[in-house]
Amino acid sequence: MLEHAGDVAGVVRGRPRSVVIACPDGCGDTLVINLDPRAGKAWDLELRGGVTLYPSVWREDGCRSHFIVWRSRILWCDRFTQDNKEPEYESALEEAVTAALSYHQFRSGYDIATEIGEISWDVIRVLRILASDGRAEQGMADQRDHYRRGSKR
Ligand SMILES: [Zn+2]
Fold first, then answer.
1. I want to staple 50 with a disulfide (CB 3.0 to 4.6 A). Which of 20, 71, 82, 138 is the partner?
2. Per the record, a Pfam family (predicted)?
């Protein structure tokens, strides 16, 4: 099933166990992404609107590719390509994400996405946009994927 770089196939035995990806940079390696928390570090698989994996895939050996799989698209984390266009989203998502932000406590984009039933990368992008103009405040250091309500309305 993995003919071309970036092709993805699921391994299901009773329930989804793993996802295999033909490394999207074309190096020819096959990446195995574990989905089962009982088998070690596990990714979250979302199938609405295509295949989404959270968090990013970062090879620590071989070609060292670092990318995210978002609505069946590959987005490179460390290099720019013309194909690196982020999927569209509805502006209503901004309102839902804003409403879910706490005024006090920093929360991760993943937790917020889970709470409001949206796709993780969709929510994380909205949070980056909200943080860029002060509607959200981004955490520091190891809390950089955490956000709370900003001072600007
Ligand atoms: Zn590769």
1. 71
2. BubE
